[in-house]
Design goal:
Helix 1 crosses helix 2. This protein is 27% helix and 31% strand. The strands form 3 sheets. Strands 1, 5, 6, 7, 10, 11, 12 and 13 form an 8-stranded mixed beta sheet that branches. It has a 3-stranded mixed beta sheet with strand order 2-4-3. The termini are far apart. The chain is α+β, with helices and mostly antiparallel strands. The model has no long low-confidence stretch (mean pLDDT 94).
């Protein structure tokens, strides 16, 4: 099976960070073919998921059915699916669906990357990564996903940080692993890591239903420093040699 549509050789090797000049995600109003084919198994899996974690919510999100790259531009076709369908796909990685999502890499003034540790009640308990989340229906503008708007919203909701107070580096980057594409942009903050951790702690304390347990300052590329998902260590390896640039 070909991983992504189009010319396979156009994609860098898995786990390699590469520049992206444009991200275009078109969202169809039709049901996702994967959802139609897997609805019953997804429903059964969801019952097991909520039996183990009743805090999970079966909301709606954007799941891709195809992703192409050409001359540094990513183009995808997507559909809105229940979160339960996504969790079933994530568990099985069956053909017919792909997951593309965005994240900011937040660098403090003293060179740490500000990440988050997800709460025990979430679908990613204890995982440490940059604030962000899957694309959702509210991120769709005129039939296409606003990735920049999505990451700004997710960061604000999870940490209380506004990306408007940070300086964004020009351009996006991406990495793909195991049928998932992470697109990200580097943002530089004027505050130190300790100041940012304190701000996020105050936000979490004031939030009646926080998604995260705490903010984490990552100070180096060591892959085992925290409970990272697989795509974070390659990004850290790429990020830290250039963090002062």
């Amino acid at each position: 099976m070909t991983f992504f549509e189009g010319n396979r050789t156009a994609w860098p090797a898995e786990g390699t960070v590469f520049p992206v000049s444009k991200i275009d995600i078109e969202v169809s109003s039709d049901p996702h073919p994967f959802h139609l084919a897997e609805a019953e198994r997804a429903r059964q899996s969801w019952q097991r998921e909520i039996a183990a974690n009743p805090h999970l919510f079966d909301g709606r999100m954007v799941l891709q059915r195809s992703i192409r790259i050409a001359e540094g531009r990513i183009a995808a076709r997507a559909h809105i699916v229940p979160y339960s369908t996504f969790l079933w796909w994530r568990r099985t990685r069956e053909p017919g669906a792909y997951h593309l999502f965005g994240m900011p890499m937040l660098l403090s003034s003293d060179g740490a990357m500000i990440a988050i540790r997800m709460g025990a009640h979430t679908a990613n308990p204890g995982r440490v990564y940059s604030p962000g989340g899957s694309l959702e229906p509210e991120d769709i503008v005129d039939g296409r996903c606003d990735v920049a708007g999505n990451i700004a919203r997710e960061v604000r909701e999870e940490t209380g940080i506004s990306l408007s107070e940070a300086v964004a580096e020009s351009g996006w980057h991406a990495i793909h692993m195991d049928s998932t594409v992470t697109v990200f942009r580097v943002f530089r903050l004027s505050a130190t890591a300790d100041e940012m951790l304190a701000r996020v702690a105050a936000h979490v304390a004031a939030d009646p239903h926080p998604e995260i347990d705490e903010a984490v300052a990552i100070c180096g590329p060591e892959p085992d420093a925290h409970n990272y998902p697989e795509f974070i260590p390659p990004i850290l390896k790429w990020l830290f040699p250039r963090r002062g640039g």
